[in-house]
Q: What sequence folds into this?
């Protein structure tokens, strides 16, 4: 189907990302996944292509504009390599960029942002704690003012890119209970009292690392407070909308990859005297998969269009996110089923996509939380 | 110094070409088209020369249908300065292309024209040579590397069984081979900048070139499908088959 929102620039950008992914990522993605790491050069190459520059001013290496369609294109094409850890490894910084640009002290912003946007340095956003991720309002890490410093105590976990990041944006409680009361802090990897350990043996996203961060009387200068005290988290809530859009687009890319591999296989594989694709049961699976992919894509494009108009369609982004991860769950399962034993072998896109359904269903706002948020946004 | 780079929009190299059922040519409906890979190398070379200060202006030209404008934009997004689009829906032969390029050279006065050594669709491999003849300029074809010193150009050419080094006096023509460089990806900032770079719209008639075909395509067919191989039982059978069936030993 033709896309009514297509422009020459979007098409050209998709072309760039697609050919980059096909030539520089897909052939190595499995190897990186097994190794648990992508080469740092990949961060820099993507930085140069403008991958991390959406919504960031040109003086900080950004694009000087934002475009939800292009954000989605980047995430979708990246996901098509089939190994979600690659996109997570490089894209982990994404959720920390806007807070640094908007809320960090000018000295910090001018010193670090450009390096992060150009892929020279890594950064992570740390909100989730061992005690929970969904219930952000109850987070327990604290920061207490001590003269010209804040002293942070507590821990964060599941922090994507955390083992390699030089810079962190951390949510910590400075005030009373609830969402107001949470401030954001800029923490560098060599801050006194800061340490980190990797989460090992995960179900997926192997090419990326997730860290547990420990703050043991971690002292940071008071100027590392980002934005207004107690109102830091509230100030970055919008940020999660771009993350959710990228996750929807990621689901879409994964679905397309799974579908493509399944259809290719179904055309080649013969059972009971004819190609798989000629068996009605398989044809129906293909119809169902394809319909779900189209639905997610159409919904996503409408969401992008609304975002481009300046709206923040929180309900739709929330619905879109769980709808996309549910569709992905279906498509990954059916694609795996079509491929049979062949799909079960490590190194296949589908094997990895199937395992990584769950991170899409849990990370960045779980399906349950997305449903709840959507209905609240709808006013009930 | 001005550098001119002609580029062609061709069937993407990843796409499997399908012959039309009436055997009149390749089916190009709804298939992915891209810049001829050799032309990407030419563009990269010109952009590199701009970056090093060797070239002052790099112009990208495409002669082709309305959609060839996308191919020009790709060149602009890679770093070329401006474009010239000569619109035609005919599938021009190398001589007609070379004549149009000559007219553009006369008008623009480049000191260097970098072309791909061939386009991967028709594989004629003759436009660069024809243009050199029409301009009466020297040519370094199938360039593996090139270096410029003043008005002299040293080109290392890929020839059968090795490399050959030639020196050319500019103005000159160079055609590119695969190993000359690795073309860059168009970055998003450059894609956005390319939007604002000018493209001159022209037609073959503007250059007074007669584009009537000199060749007639009789038919286009698929290469014969490869037959499946066989398995031999043992070495003796292999030797026997190589000797008596294949006749190679
Ligand atoms: C690979 C990976 C990478 C991550 N990267 C980051 C990162 O970079 N930065 C970061 O801050 N976090 C990150 N996270 C954390 C992620 O955001 C959390 O996992 C997510 O928010 C869910 O939190 P939780 O795991 O603590 O589950 P919990 O909040 O404990 O929830 C457990 C389950 O209960 C459900 N649930 C919770 N509350 C309710 C309710 N009220 N009603 C019904 N059901 C409910 C949830 O949906 C979930 O299914 C990452 C997670 C993963 C898996």
A:
């Amino acid at each position: 189907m033709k896309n009514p929102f297509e422009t020459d620039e979007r098409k050209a950008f998709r072309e760039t990302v697609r050919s980059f992914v096909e030539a520089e990522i897909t052939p190595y993605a499995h190897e990186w996944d097994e190794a648990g790491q992508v080469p740092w050069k990949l961060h820099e190459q993507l930085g140069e292509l403008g991958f991390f520059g959406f919504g960031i001013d040109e003086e900080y290496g950004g694009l000087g504009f934002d475009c939800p369609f292009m954000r989605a294109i980047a995430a979708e094409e990246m996901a098509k390599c089939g190994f979600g850890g690659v996109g997570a490894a490089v894209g982990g910084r994404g959720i920390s960029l806007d807070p640094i640009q908007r809320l960090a002290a000018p000295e910090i912003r001018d010193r670090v942002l450009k390096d992060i946007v150009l892929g020279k340095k890594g950064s992570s956003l740390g909100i989730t704690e061992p005690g929970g991720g969904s219930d952000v309002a109850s987070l327990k890490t604290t920061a207490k003012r001590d003269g010209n410093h804040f002293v942070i105590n507590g821990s964060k976990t599941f922090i994507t890119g955390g083992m390699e990041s030089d810079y962190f944006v951390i949510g910590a409680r400075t005030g009373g209970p609830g969402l107001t009361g949470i401030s954001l802090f800029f923490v560098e990897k060599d801050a006194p009292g800061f340490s980190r350990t990797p989460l090992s043996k995960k179900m997926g996203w192997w090419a990326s690392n997730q860290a547990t961060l420990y703050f043991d009387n971690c002292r940071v200068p008071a100027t590392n407070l980002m934005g207004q005290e107690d109102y830091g988290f509230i100030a970055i809530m919008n940020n999660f909308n771009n993350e959710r859009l990228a996750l929807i687009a990621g689901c879409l890319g994964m679905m397309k990859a799974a579908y493509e591999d399944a259809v290719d296989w179904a055309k080649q594989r013969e059972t009971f005297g004819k190609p798989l694709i000629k068996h009605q049961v398989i044809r129906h699976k293909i119809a169902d998969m394809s319909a779900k992919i189209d639905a997610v894509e159409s919904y996503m494009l409408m969401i992008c269009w609304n975002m481009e108009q300046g709206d923040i369609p929180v309900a739709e982004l929330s619905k879109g996110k769980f709808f996309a991860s549910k569709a992905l769950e279906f498509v990954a399962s059916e694609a795996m089923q079509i491929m049979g034993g062949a799909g079960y072998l490590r190194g296949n896109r589908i094997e990895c996509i199937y395992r990584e359904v769950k991170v899409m269903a849990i990370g960045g706002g779980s399906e349950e939380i997305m449903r709840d948020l959507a209905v609240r946004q709808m006013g009930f | 110094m001005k550098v001119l780079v002609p580029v062609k929009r061709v069937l993407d190299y990843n796409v499997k070409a399908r012959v039309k059922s009436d055997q009149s040519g390749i089916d190009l409906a709804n298939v992915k088209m891209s810049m001829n890979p050799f032309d990407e190398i030419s563009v990269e070379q010109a952009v590199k020369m701009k970056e090093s200060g060797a070239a002052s202006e790099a112009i990208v030209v495409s002669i082709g249908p309305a959609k060839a404008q996308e191919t020009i934009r790709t060149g602009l997004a890679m770093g070329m300065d401006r474009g010239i689009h000569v619109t035609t829906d005919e599938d021009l032969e190398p001589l007609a292309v070379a004549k149009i390029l000559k007219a553009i050279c006369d008008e623009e006065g480049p000191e260097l024209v970098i072309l791909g050594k061939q386009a991967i669709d028709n594989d004629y491999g003759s436009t660069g040579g024809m243009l050199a003849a029409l301009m009466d300029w020297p040519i370094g074809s199938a360039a593996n590397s090139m270096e410029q010193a003043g008005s002299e150009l040293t080109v290392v050419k890929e020839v059968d069984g090795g490399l050959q080094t030639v020196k050319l006096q500019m103005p000159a023509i160079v055609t590119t081979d695969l190993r000359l460089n690795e073309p860059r990806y168009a970055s998003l900032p450059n894609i956005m900048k390319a939007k604002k770079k000018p493209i001159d719209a022209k037609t073959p008639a503007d250059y007074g070139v007669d584009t009537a075909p000199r060749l007639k395509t009789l038919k286009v067919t698929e290469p014969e499908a490869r037959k499946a191989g066989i398995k031999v039982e043992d070495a003796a059978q292999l030797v026997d088959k190589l000797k008596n069936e294949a006749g190679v030993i």
